[in-house]
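Hey team,

Sharing the Charged multivesicular body protein 7 run so nobody has to redo it. Sequence (160 residues) first:
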Amino acid sequence: MISEDDWSTLMNKPQRDDRGKPLVLDQHQLEHVISDQLGILEEYRSMLAELRHEIIGEESILSGNGQDCLEELKTVVQNEASKLQELIASGIGHVHNAVTDATGKPSPPGTSEDAIDKAGDDSGGEGEGTEVLQLKLDPPEEAEVIQQNAEFMENVAVDD
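Structure output:
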């Protein structure tokens, strides 16, 4: 058993929380602190209820418009993919023509620009509004320039 004096000493000793601050022990102050804390908790509850209501509203809007939005996005992606296919097919054809013109070799059967366009272009049209640059080289003139450059380099190599 504890004596009455020891009990009084323990009760008069200031009580502290885990941060070392004195605990509120006065009944009037405790009621005030508790009502403040309950008020704050009620505000939080109402804020959460409003947020929940807004989220439910947005989910219902999204569920209705979501499918339409996905269809629009799918259409845009398909259009962009077909444009890219057209550009790639057009670029391959131009590179093939430039290489053919530069080397003077005829293209093998089935690799003409039309065949390449037909293989890679589902839209049926070429890149409208794009300027096509064709590299036109005359093989005999090109061979002559190469020969002149080779002779020049031989002379430079001999001088060193």
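The chain is about 70% helix and 0% strand.

Ping me if you want the raw files.
A.
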